[in-house]
Amino acid sequence: MMSTTAHAPTTTALSGAEVLMRALIEQGVEVIFGYPGGAVLPIYDALFKQSHIRHILVRHEQAAVHAAEAYARSTGKVGVVLVTSGPGATNAVTGLLDAMMDSIPLVCLSGQVPTALIGNDAFQEADTTGITRPVTKYNYLVRRPEDLAPAVHEAFAIARSGRPGPVLVDLPKNITVGDAPYIGAQDIRPRTTKVRTQPEREAVARAVAAMKGAKRPLFYTGGGIINAGPQASEALRRLVDMTGFPVTSTLMGLGAFPGTDKRFLGMLGMHGTYEANLATHGCDVLIALGSRFDDRVTGRVNAFSPGSFKIHVDIDPSQINKIVHVDEGIVGDVGAVIDMMIEEWEHQPAATHEADLAAWWAQIEGWRALDCLRFTQDGAADAIIKPQQAISRIYELARETRRETYVSTEVGQHQMWAAQFFRFDSPNRWLTSGGLGTMGYGLPAAVGAQVAHPDALVMDIAGEASTLMNIQELGTIAQYRLPVKIFIINNHYMGMVRQWQELLHGSRYSESYSDALPDFVKLAESFHARGLRVTRLDELDNTIRQALAHDGPVMVDICVAEGENCFPMIPSGAAHNEMILGPEQESSGAEVSTEGRMLV
Amino acid sequence: MQQEISGSAVISLLVDNESGALARIVELFSGRGYNIQSLTVAPVDEQGTTSRVNIVTTGTPSAIGQVKVQIERLVPVSRVVNLSDAGPYVAREMALVKVVSSGESRTEALRIAEAFRARAVDTTATSFVFELTGSSDKLDSFIDLMRPLGLAEVSRTGVASICRGPKTIQNF
Ligand SMILES: Cc1ncc(C[n+]2csc(CCOP(=O)(O)OP(=O)(O)O)c2C)c(N)n1
Ligand SMILES: [Mg+2]
């Protein structure tokens, strides 16, 4: 346990549940996403009796976690979840792993059977700390009343410090019912001191020296910059202004650098742009800022950015040299590192490779001229809508509203197209499940974002298959009158699965057809939302405008072409310069190696 | 990249003595595909709130480097040292070895035990239990020698280790 520096419990007897409320309030919690049950009834009672914290009742515990993730990612605060014991806790597991993979700060409070019954297979007992140990940054089973408040305070400190992540606190019912001492946050010393935030000056100086000597430099930025806060994104913009280097981003990093800026090459990796991937392949100095060389980014690791001098900045030392050997590893808060890079850049002698940099940019512009995201939309009024057309129009028309906009996605082709076509100019606006790729993330994420930003435009770009995985959240949306705009890119297929089957499995579409779909319009209406459907090109813009203008929740069923594939694509096991650009290049998967076929 | 050679390493760590702490460490190894050859754990401070864990693992130097930084991420772990990488150290293990035999084998077993300075901690007309402390290699060879002489059962503690000289795990 963490050490407490003072043992001055307040004299008025509080129940454990009341102590919990007090600790949450002290931690600045404003919203909890949760679902009640027997083991957490005392906590719900304490919630009822206070007025500082708002509770959002979801319709499934997995959704509570995704909503809290989006709340956290769109505000920079810690998301809070409350679930009951047993099935409540096990339902939360997918969300916890999702938060773990994408480094989202969360505190999940779970009910537990009384300590005396633990181990007896009591009703709704689960070994919650055992089950969630691998999917949390840390977890607790609170066995003694005096450990309750310190555990809650430490949980918040751990969730937000260093590389953020989910922390679970399991609360036996006797602990929440019985008396417990309140111990304030200032009276505990949380065990988070191992995190190094300030980088080593010499390492940063060496990195900047390499950047000064670069002929073909590239910034490869990731979700770490978003986690480091808006000031880190600001610092990145300044660093790019000073250096004039091109920038590519991971899926999780979108928005850290403005998507509409000319120096932004788009996303890299499996469905990244031609220019971003070729720049990654051909650069001579690669500066990874808060990114982790995920396999969706690297493709075949031994062919990833061959020949570049690699600089890797991460707050988590275990990420450095984990997948790709780097030449300069810098441990620290990426915002602090960028600030120091700026100082060093000003301080060190001017770069001498202006001409080389210009030539590098010329090469990049050549790649960019290929316009790798282009698609052909039949212009006839009654033409079938291409999914790319739908998504790019949603983007354009939403931009025209000039509203503060948050975008969540489900998982699949529509997610990748959204990543390609939406250009985020601010951090914290893009909410997607990157590391885990969790279908069912988008709808609850839209709930969380709208709760956090009641006046903003919140959109969920969804697939017809994914959205059914947490469709019950339409109930939450109705209850709290959350005006989210759900755009279902309905291609009647688990499109990403279908695409892999086409490219790697001889077009045998085994179980990937979305059969027996509901009527999404009626479904929306049955949940008191507006339902719209569009099937022809000439009605697309109007339908999107109508949805955006509606002041309540809307679900739009956009019926799109079924067989479209998402390009560019680096086939699994291939290198960045072996990208497939479009249908003309796609073959029966002959060029995918056996090893490639084994990759996920 | 050059092919790295796999070897074994002794990792020592200090961990808060709380429920689930050992599970956290062990699951990290199984979850990430690292190998545990032996593991020892016991409280080592006055109040019994801190335990020391010694793990013998095998892998390439970079895999072992990963093991160390991954363990460092665990909240209740306060210190991690790869002793094999940090200068000279002592690593000792204890074994209880049961030999059931008679006649010449029995005298031979006793003779070898003497040469290894193993103590007979239990003796019956047909059996011995030897207690032997030393490096894992020494224990291995003792057990190998006992095999043809009626080796019946082995119980080993796993390795306890500490660095040589005045430096402690706290100074790394
Ligand atoms: C929970 C879960 N189950 C399975 C998958 C595997 N998977 C990835 S994309 C996908 C298809 C998604 O279909 P849809 O939502 O219609 O999106 P589309 O690709 O058609 O745009 C599937 C099944 C997953 N990512 N998550
Ligand atoms: Mg689909």
From TrEMBL, chain A:
One of the record's GO molecular function terms: thiamine pyrophosphate binding
Gene Ontology cellular-component terms listed: acetolactate synthase complex
BP term (GO), one: L-valine biosynthetic process
Cofactor, how bound (note): Binds 1 thiamine pyrophosphate per subunit. Binds 1 Mg(2+) ion per subunit.
Domain Thiamine pyrophosphate enzyme TPP-binding: 411-558
Domain of life of the organism encoding this protein: Bacteria
Cofactor(s) demanded: thiamine diphosphate; Mg(2+)
Record key words, sorted: Amino-acid biosynthesis, Branched-chain amino acid biosynthesis, Magnesium, Metal-binding, Thiamine pyrophosphate, Transferase
Domain Thiamine pyrophosphate enzyme central: 204-339
Catalysed reaction equations from the record: 2 pyruvate + H(+) = (2S)-2-acetolactate + CO2
Keyword Heme in record: no
Protein name: Acetolactate synthase
Pathway membership, UniProt: Amino-acid biosynthesis; L-isoleucine biosynthesis; L-isoleucine from 2-oxobutanoate: step 1/4; Amino-acid biosynthesis; L-valine biosynthesis; L-valine from pyruvate: step 1/4
Gene3D superfamilies associated with the record: 3.40.50.970, TPP-binding domain (3.40.50.1220)
Segments forming domain Thiamine pyrophosphate enzyme N-terminal TPP-binding: 15-129
TrEMBL record, chain B:
Protein's UniProt keywords contain Amino-acid biosynthesis: yes
GO BP terms: isoleucine biosynthetic process; L-valine biosynthetic process
Transferase is among the record's keywords: yes
EC assignment: 2.2.1.6
CDD domains in the record: ACT_AHAS
Entry keywords, A to Z: Amino-acid biosynthesis, Branched-chain amino acid biosynthesis, Transferase
Main enzyme class: transferase
Catalytic activity: 2 pyruvate + H(+) = (2S)-2-acetolactate + CO2
GO CC terms of this entry: cytosol
Residue span(s) of domain ACT: 10-85
Pathway named in the protein's UniProt entry: Amino-acid biosynthesis; L-valine biosynthesis; L-valine from pyruvate: step 1/4; Amino-acid biosynthesis; L-isoleucine biosynthesis; L-isoleucine from 2-oxobutanoate: step 1/4
A GO MF term: acetolactate synthase regulator activity
Cited InterPro entries: Acetalactate_synth_ssu (IPR004789), Acetolactate_synth/TF_NikR_C (IPR027271), Acetolactate_synth_ssu_C (IPR019455), ACT-like_dom_sf (IPR045865), ACT_dom (IPR002912), AHAS_ACT (IPR039557), AHAS_small-like_ACT (IPR054480)
Oligomeric and partner information: Dimer of large and small chains.
Family statement drawn from the similarity comment of this UniProt entry: Belongs to the acetolactate synthase small subunit family.
PANTHER family membership: ACETOLACTATE SYNTHASE SMALL SUBUNIT, ACETOLACTATE SYNTHASE SMALL SUBUNIT 1, CHLOROPLASTIC
Function recorded in the entry: Catalyzes the conversion of 2 pyruvate molecules into acetolactate in the first common step of the biosynthetic pathway of the branched-amino acids such as leucine, isoleucine, and valine.
Record protein name field: Acetolactate synthase small subunit
Species annotation: Acetobacter peroxydans
